[in-house]
Amino acid sequence: MKKKTTIDLIILIAILIFVNLISISVFKRFDLSKGKIYSLSSSSKTAVKELDDRLIIKAYFSKNLPGEYADSRRFVQDILSEYQAYSHGNLKYEFLDPADEQELKKEAQQNGIMPVSMRVVQNDKLEIREVYMGLVFHYQDKTESLPMIKNTQGLEYDVTGKIKKITATGLKKIAIFDLEKDISQQTGENDKFATIRKFLSESYEVSKTDLTKPVENNIDALIIAGIEDSLEMSQLVNLDQYLMQDGNIILFQDRITTDIQQMSAKPITSNLFRLLNTFGITIKPNLVTDAQCGQVTIQQQRGIFRTQIPIKYPFFPIINNVNKENIMVKNLDYMQLIFASEIDVTNIGEDISFEPLLYTSENSGEITMPQLNISYQPFLNIDLKKMLIDEPKIVAGIYSGTFVSNFMDHTKEENAVGSTDSGKILLVSDSDFIKEGAGAGVPGNRDFVLNAVDYMVSEGTLIEIRSRETQFTPLKEVDSKTRKFIKWFNILFPSLLLILLGILHYRKELKRRKHIGELYE
Predict the structure, then answer these.
(1) SS3 for 460?
(2) What CA–CA distance (Å, rounded) separates 60 from 39?
(3) Span 26-37, pLDDT tens digits
(4) Element (H, E) at 314
(5) 34-163 and 173-286+319-466: same fold?
(6) At 355, which helix (H) or strand (E)?
(7) 71: helix, coil or strand?
(8) Which residues contact 139 (CB under 8 A, 6 or more apart)?
(9) Could you point out which of 79, 210, 288, 476 has its C-alpha 20 to 30 Å from the C-alpha of 366?
(10) How far apart are the C-alpha atoms of 244 and 423, rounded to whole Å?
């Protein structure tokens, strides 16, 4: 018996050793979360598998982190371990705590990792503690950093983005149409594309153009937003020729200009629309409304006091009705439009195809010329779902196919091109979508722009991981009768259930007492 036990123990040890040897080269992680947000996407795995040289990641993390950030270190370690497992030995990482070592502090700060002061309550005392929570990437002679990781949401995107950036031989180029002064002299206050420019700069080389000169051939995508006046002939020609040379245009364009302070609206009369019409691209001179919308704050007099009251404003549609077949938008939770118009798809030419991307909700409407009334008054104290009963309206889409130049007689360029089969135009009928102080602050809008650029320049590897974490999961709306039923059901059902259980328990107790009484009679 003793001999058999010894043999079983030896076999068990051998099996454990064999399994551990296999686990060194075979890595598998099971992630049952929605969107598999706790495991690497295929894009991230590909990024580290394709490393040609050793990539070192130094994680400067304090060990004595405040309670709300205590899990960050573990999460970062888990995700870096997974990157390392898929890198075939080309990625290594190490954790360093610069707390008491001056050399490490100096090294961290030289790499852009600065200490952050945080308030910590310990032993009933409030302390100010300096902590480090950053990553530094070393690849060949290049260095990139993530200075502060307060929130682990989106960390995979940040890490993979840095890996792709530091290992890239050359960044693709994006130009933004801007008539303002040079970017280098712009500040956050007057740069209306500051947020979008900042995020694009993480993965692309971003420049500006005013279209007075031909767009350089190495510009992979051109972003245009908010043209309100007619363009000069040279600008129209250069825009046309950029498209004819297989260019990719991302256009955020209003059809109606509005002033919410004055509650006024009027159509934009730019010659840009005539150029777009020749390609079969038409934006209706209307404003869409949607029962699923954002809010504005109004003042109301209540007695001797004036109070600020938020109300739903259907000219600010919240968009979560997207084309699930397109990778660019299928994982986006929601976006915010501000005074958008409907895209007309009835005049598209036979040689051009259109793929819709964004729709308003099932409860939509519109206001049309000549009465462009954008006042909130008609929507006060009204069930917008009963008022707005139109079908969803298209507010964004992609045009592709054969585009024919309109300006061959107006260009003096010897290498002018008359048509293209490879150009693309992505249109969103709202310029505020990406501007400072408006839509640029909405995470979904930002992700849409980044996805759009990736998609248009065929850099779709990061689209998969950009919006894996759920940010907006609204409850399903129900009518008032259903709400009342649910309300009273939640109030009465627990009480009735408790009474029923009490009656059943009482009857059971009576039976038990009766049975005991019968035994002793």
Answers:
(1) helix
(2) 22
(3) 656 666 665 566
(4) strand 305-319
(5) no
(6) strand 352-359
(7) helix
(8) 53, 54, 55, 56, 166, 167
(9) 476
(10) 7
* pLDDT more than 70, % of the chain: 88
The domain segmentation of the chain, as residue ranges, is: 34-163, 173-286+319-466, 478-521
Q: Which amino acid is at 396?
A: A
Q: What are phi and psi of 509, to 5 degrees?
A: -65, -40
Type of residue at 291: A
Fold of the 34-163 domain: Glutaredoxin (3.40.30)
- Res. 428: pLDDT tops 90: yes
Q: CB within 8 A of 170, min separation 6: which ones? A: none
Confidence of residue 184 (pLDDT cuts 50, 70, 90): very low
DSSP single-letter state for residue 67: G
CA distance 500 to 1: 59
Q: Return the sign of the alpha-carbon dihedral for residues 27, 33, 35, 38.
A: negative
Query: Dihedrals φ, ψ of 294, to 5°?
Result: -85, -170
The answer, yes or no, to whether residue 368 has pLDDT greater than 60, is: yes
- C-beta of residue 108 within 8 angstroms of C-beta of residue 132: yes
Beta strands 205-209 and 173-177 are: parallel
Say how far apart CA 435 and CA 192 lie, in whole Å.
Answer: 5
CA distances from 18 to 23, 293, 327, 393, 453 (A): 9, 59, 42, 61, 48
Q: What is the pLDDT of residue 183?
A: 45
Q: Choose which CATH entry (3.40.720, 2.30.130, 3.90.1570, 3.40.50) describes domain 173-286+319-466.
A: 3.40.50
By 3-state DSSP, what share of the chain in percent is helix, strand and coil, each rounded to 5? 35, 25, 40
Residue with the two structure tokens 């135009």: 425
Interatomic CA distance for residues 501 and 9, integer angstroms:
53
Q: Please state the rounded mean pLDDT for residues 313-335.
A: 92
Say which residue the tokens 């009251």 belong to.
Answer: 309
Q: Contact 220/173 with Cβ under 8 angstroms? A: yes
Answer whether 266's CB lies under 8 Å from 372's CB. yes
**321 near 358, Cβ under 8 Å?**
yes
The 10s digit of each residue's pLDDT in 265-302 is 999 999 999 999 999 999 999 999 999 999 998 887 77
Question: How far apart, in whole angstroms, are the C-alpha atoms of residue 169 and residue 225?
Answer: 30
367 has a pLDDT exceeding 90: yes
Output the six-digit token pair for 205. Answer: 């080389």
Kindly report the three-state secondary structure assignment for every residue of 423-452: CEEEEECCCHHHCCCCHHHCHHHHHHHHHH
| pLDDT averaged over every residue in the chain | 85
Q: CA nearest 468: which of 32, 37, 29, 30?
A: 37
